[in-house]
Amino acid sequence: MRDIQKEFLDNRNLTKDMWRIFRILSDFTDAFEELEDIPPAISIFGSAREKRGGFYYKKAEEISRKLSERGFAIMTGGGPGIMEAANKGAKISIGLNIDLPHEQNINPYVKIPLKFRYFFTRKVTFLKYSVGTVMMPGGFGTLDELSETLVLIQTGKMSKIPVVFFGSEFYKPLLKFYETMLEHDYIDRSDLNLFIVTDDVDEVVEYISKNAFIPKNWNSLERKE
After folding, report:
1. Which of 147, 130, 117 is nearest to 28 (CA)?
2. What are 134-183's pLDDT values in tens digits?
3. What global pTM score does this model have?
4. Which of 122, 154, 167, 175 is deepest in the core (most CB within 10 A)?
5. What are the E-state strand segments in the chain?
6. What's the CA dihedral at 58, 60, 61, 67 to 10 degrees?
7. In this structure, are residues 221 and 38 in contact, taking their beta carbons and an 8 Å threshold?
8. Residue 23 sits in which domain range?
9. Gap between the terminal Cα atoms of the chain
């Protein structure tokens, strides 16, 4: 097992930091070159632990398929569970995988695979190429992506994109916590308009199709094989 404490302390090592800069640039360069010519993408996040054939697995696949029919590329973390389902339903299927201590293999439905060393370079790539995002039920990783997306929109660091929480029962405790934040004046009432919550696949598709920014050269964007 890697010595995590030693690696953490080693972060204050100028020589190694210089090499980290090159690895960071490599993450970005590979992503930008590979994804330059994809159509506008929808990122779908959710648990890697969702079982094949499970309720949310089926819903993720259906959402992906219907968004693909509207011409969107589908981007996920490339792993199992919800990610696999979304890649399975996609025509243009992208998987942004991450190098982890316990290897997370690319699922078999990813057609355009990328592997990242760093979470933050991966997250930048998700948001750079996404014109909308669907947050399916998930764990810490999904919550991380969800929170970062909302913060960047809230603070004006990125354009407002349609954000959908799918699974009203699952997200009910989080929405209640948002109300607690509101009671303490830690967020504004308008911040609760940065997303919608639904259990309806067609509502997801219509909301994203209506609110996603579509580039003027939308019809000319074709994946080069």
Report:
1. 117
2. 999 999 999 999 999 999 999 999 999 999 999 999 999 999 999 999 99
3. 0.89
4. 122
5. 41-45, 73-76, 93-98, 112-116, 130-135, 163-166, 196-198
6. 140
7. yes
8. 4-215
9. 40
